[in-house]
Batch of 2 targets.
Target 1
Amino acid sequence: MATLRIKVRPFVSARPVWLAGLIVLGACLSYGQTVNSCLDCHSAQPGRLEVTPEKFSQDIHSQKGLTCTSCHGGDSSSYDPDQAMSRKAGWKGKVDRKQIPQLCGSCHSNPALMRQYNPSLRTDQLDQYHTSVHGKLLAAGDSKVAVCTDCHSVHDLRPPSDPRSTVNPVNVAKTCSRCHSDAAYMKQYGIPTDQFAKYNTSVHYDAMVVRGDLSAPTCTTCHGNHGAAPPGVDKVQNVCATCHAFQAQMYAKSTHAKAFQDASLPGCVVCHSNHAIHLPSDAMLGTGPSGVCMRCHTAGDHCDRARADILDNLTRLDASIKDADQSLRLAESAGMEVSAARLSQDQARDSLTKARVTIHTFQAALVNEDVQAGMKIADANLKAGQDAMVERNHRRIGLGICLIAIAMMLVGLWLYIKKLESK
Ligand code: HEC
Ligand code: HEC
Ligand code: HEC
Ligand code: HEC
Ligand code: HEC
Ligand code: HEC
Ligand code: HEC
Ligand code: HEC
Ligand code: HEC
């Protein structure tokens, strides 16, 4: 009871002093909780030692409540560098590149730990990494290959879904190119350094980066991200097949599939390339510089004849569709009703698209089936346009005759009136 009195008294009598004390105490307590000597000191360090609060606050680990010591160890409550960065306080020292996968894996390969934060997050990145060309070479002592932080960055590491992340699908190619386009850096390996430059000219780059179609592939879609090994020759077709199923099914049944496999040729890539995949056109079937068939076939053999036949069919259907289009446009601008025919032109175009897929059977007869279906529609539409013009001409002649008749009638009337007046 007495103690209570002693406490209450000053509260009543010396209120401002008490309040000030409380504020200082509160400040001290919250200061004690968030003090981070590592961040405070390193934000003022020069060059590569600098880690600022602005940068670190962007990091997913910081946002999830982890801090410098979660990865580096040490005592973040001490401003004495000898104490803060002492081995006794668990400081791990300068981070060696070769240790980085183990460091990241110490949490990310621990399902029990990771589940507390995000149950849907995979925990196989380190295992996968060990199977990749990067991981194998690192284990063999080559520290020039990519480790976790080369792809993910460090201290401002964002989840892949963040558009600013170095591993967001749109940014991946640039991240890989830091090494893979650097001819000097890659010199000792003797592999090409043109993947990024070529990929940048491809339909896939155009779809993903220019048109924002995230269903198009970037480097890691084809190569894997953690198991970053190139698909073996026999797996190349599988990569393309995951998205281009129709072409892949037809190709799989073709003579080429077997012939290419026997010759260890990489399937789709033989004709389309791997990184510089461009918009295909009928010219690929031609004998000009974009032609791909004559690289292997001889002029006049049965394969060349099939090639010429396919090309001829496609060209004819393409021309027929264009003729029909023009004829319908003409009829339309003459005010004739041809909307039904205009609409069915889409079906003819679909047949042409289908025929270009059927090419992957490399059988002229099958391509021709699609072409014939399109031809029937295009021919009918051409006729519809022509008929409409004939009809319009009939109407014009009819109208002309009517006008002449009316004019004659008016002249007759005028002459008649004149005659009456003169009387
Ligand atoms: C009072 C300033 C200060 C404090 C506090 C401090 N550091 Fe350092 N830290 C330094 C300086 C200076 C170096 C460079 C020392 C050297 O090159 O020998 C350094 C080096 C490092 C390095 C090695 C960098 C490298 O690759 O050479 C790491 C990692 C590091 N500090 C992390 C931490 C962590 C984690 C904490 C908190 C537990 C911390 N530091 C606290 C000043 C500080
Ligand atoms: C998610 C783990 C992680 C966290 C959290 C983390 N670091 Fe690091 N830090 C690393 C790794 C890994 C490296 C080595 C990077 C490399 O060599 O590519 C590193 C490197 C460093 C370096 C040396 C830079 C250099 O280029 O050699 C310093 C200094 C450092 N960290 C300080 C800090 C400070 C201060 C904090 C807290 C604000 C912090 N780190 C938080 C993982 C972390
Ligand atoms: C101390 C444990 C720990 C260490 C060490 C660690 N991480 Fe993390 N990491 C986490 C936690 C926890 C999350 C948050 C997961 C969540 O909530 O999505 C996370 C998130 C991530 C994410 C985002 C995942 C997502 O899609 O949400 C990436 C990427 C990542 N870490 C990479 C790394 C890399 C690279 C290293 C090594 C430099 C590393 N981490 C070291 C614990 C750790
Ligand atoms: C060659 C580049 C590369 C390396 C090396 C790499 N990553 Fe990744 N990582 C990626 C890409 C790309 C993604 C995004 C995948 C996506 O879009 O879903 C990713 C995603 C992640 C994620 C998010 C969850 C997931 O699996 O999709 C985590 C966590 C992660 N990486 C951790 C690591 C760790 C730990 C290491 C080192 C052992 C590492 N990464 C090495 C490229 C890399
Ligand atoms: C830090 C530099 C660096 C980064 C970043 C990097 N790589 Fe590599 N990568 C290498 C080195 C070095 C090799 C070894 C080359 C060799 O042995 O042929 C390699 C090998 C490869 C190989 C195997 C090549 C072969 O000839 O077998 C593939 C595939 C690959 N990287 C893909 C990627 C992808 C995809 C990315 C981005 C997600 C990436 N790399 C990021 C340095 C890097
Ligand atoms: C559409 C799938 C696809 C995309 C996207 C892709 N690659 Fe490839 N890449 C391949 C194929 C297929 C090979 C050949 C593999 C073989 O012959 O075994 C290859 C080969 C490679 C090689 C081995 C050396 C070479 O050039 O033959 C490297 C390194 C490589 N790619 C890196 C990259 C990088 C970096 C990117 C992104 C800029 C990328 N790839 C995008 C499919 C792709
Ligand atoms: C992750 C899915 C994916 C993978 C894997 C993939 N592609 Fe594509 N591909 C696309 C998308 C999406 C487009 C863009 C389609 C568009 O323009 O609407 C495209 C476009 C194309 C085109 C142009 C077709 C056109 O009419 O626009 C060709 C040719 C092509 N890819 C060939 C390949 C080859 C060969 C491979 C394997 C080396 C491959 N693709 C792997 C998704 C993929
Ligand atoms: C022997 C050469 C050859 C091979 C092998 C080949 N293609 Fe093609 N591909 C072509 C030609 C030629 C065209 C052009 C059609 C046109 O526009 O006339 C084409 C067109 C395409 C198109 C766009 C046209 C469309 O709408 O279908 C895609 C997508 C495509 N190929 C994907 C693939 C895939 C995936 C594979 C492997 C499963 C593959 N190709 C294998 C020669 C080939
Ligand atoms: C990389 C070499 C190569 C390329 C490129 C190539 N072919 Fe072939 N083609 C072959 C081989 C090998 C065979 C099987 C042996 C044979 O019949 O001559 C074959 C077979 C054929 C056949 C016979 C199919 C059958 O079922 O009997 C036709 C038709 C054919 N190719 C057309 C084409 C066309 C069209 C192109 C271009 C789009 C093309 N080829 C591109 C190598 C190639």
Target 2
Amino acid sequence: MRGQQLFVQTGCESCHKQTLKTGYSPVAALANTEFHPYTDLLLHNMGPGLDDGYTEGSAGGAEWRTPPLWGLGLAQNSQGGQVYLMHDGRARSIREAIRMHGGEAASIQKRFEEMPAASQADVIAFLKSL
Ligand code: HEC
């Protein structure tokens, strides 16, 4: 729970939105329903370190969609004992994935790096609980 608070306070939640709400759906169970995907479903410029030099439609090489973090805690077992995070799987741990955030996320990544190690561990424990 401490990790979840820090996740919000640090600003991770500005992109990895905890709660979204569906709109109209003819299926009642899907209509106007809150869910917790930990994404805003939007593209963000993530800086030169994540620029693969390829454009897709109108998206530049450094622009990536915020991935949902729900289920992140299951990734290790579902990916054969090792996690492969970020768009091309280059990050081999949650810690490494956070370190690779640049561009629009640079100031928030810096805030995370400046937190005490115990607080960083709390955030990662929270992410593994999703
Ligand atoms: C500016 C928006 C933004 C902010 C702020 C942000 N992220 Fe992200 N995050 C992204 C995007 C976009 C990606 C995907 C980048 C890629 O695919 O190369 C990502 C990827 C990740 C991943 C890897 C997920 C996967 O399935 O590959 C983790 C873990 C993560 N972010 C955690 C965090 C944490 C923790 C914070 C706060 C310290 C944070 N993010 C702040 C946009 C953001």
